[in-house]
Amino acid sequence: MIRVAIDGPAGVGKSTTSKELARRFGLAYLDTGAMYRACAWWCMRQGIDLDAEPVNERRITETVGEFFTGGHFDIGVDPDDPKVLADGEDIGAAIRSSEVSTHVSKVSNIIPVRNVLIAAQRAYIAREAAEDSFSGGRGIVAEGRDITTVVAPDAEVRVLLTAREEVRQARRAGQASKGVGGEDVAARDRADSKVTSFMEAADGVTTIDNSDLGFEDTMQLLGSLVEQAV
Ligand code: C5P
User: In total, how many domains does the chain have?
Assistant: First the structure.
């Protein structure tokens, strides 16, 4: 069982590289950002005003708790089809709207919400040790903001994927044409940095700055880290 933890700021290409890494090594894939996005989407769907100042933390925490314990939420760990479901509805596109992107930090900044998600993420990761899991016991690539530090600090491979801000901003702007919200990544990183630390690598975490690297160069670096660990 190998656990690969990948953290990094918005627009660095974490999802694309993490998914491809999981595919190449036959591992499961967990997009923890999709979990926070799904929570923000669900809260808005329940009529919670995420523009309120301050937001209603208690109601958001209860709503997210019910989303998980009530069995409304589900996420797939197949890197070829990482579905995000709410009551069986595929919300994969909805959670990547600019409305969700600009509001998600309001939800992810709430510590009791994080505790619910961290516990769920640890359970998804632990599950992949089993032979009857998606990876057949091979392991998982989990990506987000606090995987190397909080969710799985004992992961066999821990990477901080980063890139210069102007590069990340340009990549996100390029994705706007594909239906991913073009957005101010720096503003989201500032908001997220209040509760998670992903701009600098923690002890034992390998930094890969892909500002001037092609996709395949990044994949080679990640792949060699995984090979060394197996
Ligand atoms: O990775 P992605 O951009 O989809 O993440 C969406 C949001 O989810 C982040 O901006 C952050 O607010 C939150 N997040 C988090 N901790 C994680 C992953 C994502 O707080 N491990």
Answer: 1
